[in-house]
């Protein structure tokens, strides 16, 4: 018999025949055994008790599910609704994966796969982090599909994987071989991509089908790499490749990003996606967002120039004091820190007691702050202020012999005239990137 004493606040009804009387019960850990009654007569007793317990035996999985956040009655109606919506997201993803597997195994689409109720939802996958600065998940490429791990990067727009003729730095990465895919096509164009840390990749462009969590886009342009710089070697970059998720206008190929292709091919309703980045429970959803991951409302701010996810940051404050207002900022999952021009960063740390310029001890552009007095740094978007958690702003001790000073999460880049808002802030919120309406939404983590 299932454990009926550990179910908290589960509410069920049982329709019995031939009386067709509705029996209900409520149980909590402190009630042993649960109180059972007929809501019409108020009658209690062994007969009713056995009837409901029989329901447990036959359908105990329903009550077991009530211990999950997605189905439990939570405190507050909004939380309960978000949990139910999150559960629907999980169900949608489950069936999308099943339909994709059916088509792969049987060579034809499942007859229900075209149902808009499932097809035009969104898919979500858990992400893993590499040192909490690269956010990785699986995609499948080609026919038959092969699985690769990619870093999802909102600061670029192109997809690349190591090719069969890639140099020695591709060693230990999983190789994509277009000749092994019946759906690949050689586009007879070369490519060269460069990234902010100096890493580079070169190769040839192909197109092929790409799948994420049961959502498939065909004829997606991808780079088949022949040359990885040292920054993409396995010891520095654990993913096989990278998927850019910014706008087409900064694509070096140029080509539609994967999310845009999904929307164009009616795999998702709109070209939107959302990230939750955290030590545990990181998630990427395509086609929408999982409301169980955040609390309160999403606040939106428009993209000021399509290319990067560039918005106007209302303000940035330290310990409650505004430092700057209305500054251009790019939201970038591929950047660990918050980065700005040197003048702005100098001004911010000037307002933090005990801050020190660490350009000569750590690296140019860095500052330290007292480890026992980490400041409260706040960023405001769409009229709503979000505080950066002290443990996120603190990038660790400045050195083994000086543990009283810690490296600050804001650094300067000489000659830069805008802000890059990286994971120091992005791990504070769930954010919703909306290509269709050209806007970015922010909400507080649940």
TrEMBL record:
GO terms for biological process: proteolysis. The keyword Disulfide bond applies. It holds the Pfam family Asp. Disulfide bonds join 166-170. Gene3D superfamilies: Acid Proteases. Keywords: Aspartyl protease, Disulfide bond, Hydrolase, Protease. It comes from the Eukaryota. Residues 135-443 form the Peptidase A1 domain. It comes from Grifola frondosa (Maitake). The gene is pr1_9. This is Aspartic protease. The keyword Disulfide bond applies. Belongs to the peptidase A1 family. The active site is at residues 153, 332.
């Amino acid at each position: 018999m299932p454990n009926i004493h550990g179910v908290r606040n589960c509410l069920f009804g049982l329709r019995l025949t031939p009386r067709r009387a509705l029996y209900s019960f409520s149980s909590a850990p402190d009630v042993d055994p649960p109180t059972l009654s007929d809501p019409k007569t108020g009658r209690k007793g062994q007969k009713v008790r056995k009837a409901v317990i029989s329901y447990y035996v036959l359908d105990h999985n329903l009550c077991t599910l009530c211990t999950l956040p997605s189905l439990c009655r939570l405190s507050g109606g909004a939380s309960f609704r978000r949990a139910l919506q999150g559960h629907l997201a999980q169900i949608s993803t489950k069936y999308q994966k099943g339909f994709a597997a059916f088509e792969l195994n049987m060579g034809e689409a499942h007859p229900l796969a075209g149902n808009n109720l499932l097809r035009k939802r969104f898919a979500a996958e858990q992400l893993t982090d590499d040192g909490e600065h690269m956010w990785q998940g699986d995609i499948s490429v080609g026919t038959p599909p092969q699985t690769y791990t990619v870093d999802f990067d909102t600061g670029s727009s192109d997809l690349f994987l190591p090719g069969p003729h890639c140099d020695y730095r591709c060693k230990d990465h999983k190789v994509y071989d277009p000749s092994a895919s019946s759906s690949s096509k050689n586009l007879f164009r070369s490519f060269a991509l460069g990234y902010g840390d100096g890493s580079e990749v070169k190769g040839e462009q192909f197109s092929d089908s790409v799948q994420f969590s049961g959502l498939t886009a065909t004829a997606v342009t991808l780079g088949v790499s022949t040359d990885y710089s040292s920054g993409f070697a396995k010891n520095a970059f654990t993913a096989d490749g990278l998927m850019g998720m910014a706008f087409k206008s900064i694509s070096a190929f140029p080509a539609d990003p994967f999310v845009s292709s999904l929307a164009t091919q009616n795999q998702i309703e709109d070209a939107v996606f959302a990230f939750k980045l955290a030590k545990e429970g990181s998630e990427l959803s395509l086609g929408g967002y999982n409301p169980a991951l955040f609390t309160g409302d999403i606040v939106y701010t428009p993209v000021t120039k399509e290319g990067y996810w560039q918005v106007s940051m209302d303000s940035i404050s330290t310990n409650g004091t505004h430092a700057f207002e209305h500054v251009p900022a790019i939201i970038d999952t591929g950047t660990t820190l918050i980065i700005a021009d040197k003048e702005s960063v100098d001004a911010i740390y000037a307002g933090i007691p005990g801050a020190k310029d660490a350009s000569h001890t750590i690296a140019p552009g860095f500052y330290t702050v007292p480890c026992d007095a980490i400041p409260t740094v706040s960023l405001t978007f769409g009229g709503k202020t979000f505080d950066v958690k002290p443990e996120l702003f603190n990038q660790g001790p400045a050195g083994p012999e000086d543990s009283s000073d810690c490296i600050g999460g804001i650094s300067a880049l000489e000659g830069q005239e805008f802000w890059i808002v990286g994971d120091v802030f992005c791990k504070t919120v769930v954010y919703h990137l909306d290509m269709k309406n050209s806007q970015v939404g922010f909400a507080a983590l649940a």
